[in-house]
Amino acid sequence: MSVSPALADLSRLYQTEFVRSARAVGVLWAVCTLCFAIIQVVVLVQPSWIGTADTRHQGAGPAPPSGTLGLFEVCVESDWPVTDCRGGLSSLSPLPSFQSVAVLVGVSLWAVWTSVLCLCLFRFCSAATVYKICAWLQLTAGFCLALACLLFPDSWESPEMRALCGDSVGSFSPGNCSVHWAYILAILGVLDAAILATLAFVLANRQDALLPPDAKEGEGGVGASGGPS
């Protein structure tokens, strides 16, 4: 049964609007992927995974140390205006107790920045293929970051933690310290990776359905219709 010209034009109009919506969502997904990659850098380099709680010292003895701790660096407040920090990312040597956590965060960082670089493939490959590649990379980044967040509290029983948080520190027990914003940001990064990967899979599976019928015949139309470019 033949379709009336008016109905065919209306169907093509709806299809075009769907393609534009998919392109807008793809641009938003690409921007969020770049933001997630920047967050990964901040999580890796910041010495604010855990720190001393804001409590007033009472007693005649010396005040306990106050500072923060990260994967590569321990910073302790001193009488000088500048915080006394030991270690750093420049040495490429994480704290001994957090080496496995640093490696997992590093792999997660590599995966998410690789997905950012893969955005250039929209000019050469089909959009569905690029979305799937990025989705698997983001899943890898999220898995490694989640594993790092789970292993980090298990490594609290270390000399660096004891010197900063007291002798009551232990695995999953921060002693006189509490988690700081970098660790919370890493946990939020796991959720961000899951959302971005899911959205990438959805966009990949919707590419063929969103394309007009005449554009499905060539691969050039597939690559240009759903990408964030």
UniProtKB/TrEMBL annotation:
User: Which is a Pfam family this sequence falls into?
Assistant: L_HMGIC_fpl
Q: How does this protein sit in the membrane?
A: Multi-pass membrane protein
> Which keywords does this Swiss-Prot/TrEMBL entry list?
Membrane, Transmembrane, Transmembrane helix
Among its keywords, does the record have Cell wall biogenesis/degradation?
no
Where does it sit, as one GO cellular component term?
plasma membrane
Alphabetical list of InterPro entries matching this protein: LHFPL (IPR019372)
**Protein localization:** Membrane
Q: What is this protein called?
A: LHFPL tetraspan subfamily member 4b
